[in-house]
């Protein structure tokens, strides 16, 4: 099984964080977005094709050609002409059935597994504000139509940007949309006219990183699954409550009070006498000094 992850675009909405760093290399819960998604694909695929473009060298250098047993192949999208164009760049490398997912959205393995039970499927989520999304019109769990940001209510099932397809998707010719891009959803809609495409409603999570502050939302969600683990040094007089992770080489000094979920990276210097509150991720080589309080932070 193969997967395609789209990671070619230049993200302007997450600037200044992404002026000189690719969006998929931003971190939540002390792990990059691309690593989170690759972790969810372990055991499901043996090869991932990553479509790169903007700052492609950063992604290639970071991941290399193998990630925890998954073969990584890179395909360059030289001109960012939309998701349809990006997928088409992979045409010669796709063997048959594959997963297509967005590189800057986070998904859960269990939801992906549900999608894989069908020949063709799309991942959807019920939302309270469908006018902000592309929404699928569904009958008996089968896709009938897709409406982008409908002004009037037609459905509340938002498109999550994860699809299970096969190489037949390349048979459908698509035209440039109003915004001058080739959209993969147009090909998927044409696919629905000839095949049943299942709508799989999310049971776990879909974390879309549109703006910088969405990193905090994703960070909070992912830290809920944290397990207590201490690989650093904890001085007498430090208090750790709840699920806290402390990396190698990190020292938690006396008087530090840490309320999980909190993850602290390697070679950090924490305290003395600081207060770290829930939903906080502290990366490697950080210092949190005396009388400092942080919460809900990356």
Please tally the β strands and state the result: 26
Residues in helices, as a percent range: 10-25%
Task: Enumerate the spans where pLDDT stays under 50 for 5 or more consecutive residues.
Answer: none
Average pLDDT for all residues: 96
Radius of gyration: 21 Å
Beta-strand percentage?
A: 25-35%
Largest sheet: 8 strands, mixed
How does this model look, in words?
- The protein has 298 residues and is α/β, with parallel strands linked by helices.
- It is 17% helix and 33% strand.
- The chain is built from 6 helices and 26 strands.
- The strands form 7 sheets. The protein has an 8-stranded mixed sheet with strand order 5-6-4-1-7-12-9-13. The protein has a 4-stranded parallel sheet with strand order 15-18-21-24, covered by helices on one side.
- The protein is elongated.
- The chain starts with a strand and ends with a strand.
